[in-house]
Every structure is written in C-alpha cells, then in structure tokens.
C-alpha cells in the first residue's frame, strides 16, 4: 500500500524504542573486524524535518524524542542514541529527526554495506537524494522490501542485520513478517533480524507476538506501552521489537532502558513495558 508516510510519526515513542535498539545493535555488530551488511526493508525517506510538512501536523515527536533531548541522566544506550539525534541538530533546536537508514549509515565502517528498500515513489526519491553520495556502500531500491530481503540472503560477508519495519496498514503484513523471518532463518541462520510491530487491539496484531515467540532459536521480545488501550479500540498504544539472534548484551541494555522510556514517554497511567527472551 502506498498511502502510508512515516513522516507523520517521525520521532514518536515507537521510533524512540526502535532506533535506540538499532543503534545498540549497530554498536555491537561493528565491533568485530569483518564487514557487516545492513538491510532495511521499509526504509522510508531516511530523515525528516519536524518543523514543517507531515511531521508538524500531529507533532508526535513532542511526546517522543523531545522528552529525552535535554536529559543528562539516561542509561548509556539511550544516551548514545540521543547524542546521534543531537548531532543532526547542531543548533540545539530539534528541527530534524534521523530515520533508521540515517542512523545505520552514521555507524557504518568503510567496508560495511547498507541496502535500502522503499516502495513509496516520493519517499524513495527523498531517500535517494539523502544517499546520492553513498557510492557502492549504500544502494537504494524502489521495490518490495520482503522480496529484497530474500534476494540478499545470505550476504557475501556472512554477517548481517536486517530491520523489518512495515506499516501494517495491510492486514496481510502480520502473516508476511512471520513468513519472512522463517524464510530468512533458512537462508541465513546466523543473521540478526529486528522486527518492529505495533501494539493495537486488532486480533491479528494481538496474535503476532505469541506467534513470533514460537520461532526456533534465540530471540528477544521487548514491548513499550505508553498508554492504556482506548475504550473504542482504535489507536496504537505502544510497540514491540522482536530480535532473532540478539547479542548477549541486549537483554541487559533493555532492562536498563525500558523503565526509563516507560517513565519518560508515558501518556497516562496505563504505561508499562515487557521484556522476554527465549531460554535456548
């Protein structure tokens, strides 16, 4: 579907959770002296202006990243992520927000590779302009990110991180992400896969975490709920991240970060968090 534009939600609570974990994964995986391939299946525009356009309409960033920007007491992983956002706003005012491609690119080493997929024609054009000087290191492709992921596994270096982040406007995405992870495990069992999903009151959304936790291998599932579910059943009250083959450090990182995020980003007394890992 081509109606979804992530700019409406740039910098919101879901972005904060997703991007803080992405930065933590990138920091860990780039410690090893071997090239890393990073694949973003639904890359969006790459970066977003917050003071005009779509992002300014709902200003979701005001209850998201803005609540962390002046904090000096954040745990290391959150402080690292916030420092990257501050680096994009050197004047001190929060005018821009980095999407996942921007953050991943900021942490790449010379031999690493970034492969970005986006279906929306306007966003893929913006994405291409952002990375027009990327050369061979960054390749932007307009197309289906699920098919793109399949075509790139296993990566030549046999080290990879895939971010799977569909909008879930199409109900079929819930089944598609599960099948994508199953297929990816077969093609590249040692890859690190990071799947974002919304917390909604739709049946398919409520079933997804349980289905994900039945996948074989090592996994970590983190959820951040910023508000109680609405009585009318509408709206996203939080989001989750499911990571296959998580670094051994990620559980401790999130055990430190989630309580802080719950406190900082809460919209009402229904805010909570959940962290679960496999026992394998």
Can you walk through the features of this model?
This protein is of the alpha/beta class. It has a domain at 6-199: Vaccinia Virus protein VP39 (Rossmann fold, 3-Layer(aba) Sandwich). Helix content is 36%, strand content 19%. The protein has nine helices and ten strands. Helix 1 (13-29) crosses helix 3 (76-87) and helix 1 runs antiparallel to helix 9 (250-265). The protein starts with 12 loop residues before the first helix and ends with a strand. The model has no long low-confidence stretch (mean pLDDT 94).
Annotate the secondary structure layout.
Blueprint: H1 13-29, E1 37-40, E2 47-49, H2 54-58, H3 76-87, E3 96-98, H4 100-106, E4 113-118, H5 121-130, E5 138-142, H6 145-152, E6 160-164, H7 172-187, E7 192-199, H8 203-212, E8 219-225, E9 238-244, H9 250-265, E10 272-277
Parallel strand pairs: 1-4, 1-6, 4-5, 6-7
Antiparallel strand pairs: 2-3, 7-9, 8-9, 8-10
Please tag this protein with its features.
alpha/beta; 8-stranded mixed sheet; Rossmann fold; 280 residues; single chain; 10 strands; globular
